[in-house]
Amino acid sequence: MPKLTVEGFGTVDVPAGKRLVLAIERDLGVDILHACGGNARCTTCRVEFLEGEPQVMTAAEKSKLAEKQLSGVRLSCQITCTEDMKVRAISRLEGSGRPDAGPEPAVEITPPAQWVSRD
After folding, report:
1. Structural contact between residues 91 and 102, judged by C-beta atoms closer than 8 angstroms
2. Residue 8's domain is classified under what CATH number?
3. Domain span at 102
4. HSE of 54 in the Cβ direction (CA atoms, 13 Å)?
5. How many distinct structural domains can be found in the chain?
6. Is the pLDDT of residue 113 over 90?
7. Which of 109, 86, 119 is closest to 34 using CA atoms?
8. Is the pLDDT of residue 9 over 90?
9. Among 4, 23, 7, which Cα is nearest to 90's?
10. Which pLDDT band, with edges at 50, 70 and 90, does 119 fall under?
C-alpha cells in the first residue's frame, strides 16, 4: 500500500489506485476543495508535491493546467495513489468562503484517464 503524507495532517496507507483527492479528504480528513466534482474543470483541488510526484498525468490535467497557466501544482482529482507521496494541500475549504468543498468526486478518474508525460 502506498503511503500518503499531507503536510500538517499526517501519513496514512491508502489502497493502490485510489484517487488522490479522495485519499486526502477521506483518509486524512483534509478539507480539500473539489468544486467541479473532480472532473478537471476548476483547479480547486490543487496540491503541491513535496515528494513522489508521478511522472505521468491525464491529458485533461495537462490541458487545464496549461489553460490556467499554472505550474508547480497538480490536480489531485487526476492522480491515483500508486507510490508513496508527500503533498501540500494548498486549496482548502477553510478560508475559501465557499459553503462546501464541492460535489463528491467519483471513485474513478473523470473524464476517463488518457495518460501522458507531465513534461
Report:
1. no
2. 3.10.20.30
3. 3-117
4. 23
5. 1
6. yes
7. 109
8. yes
9. 7
10. confident
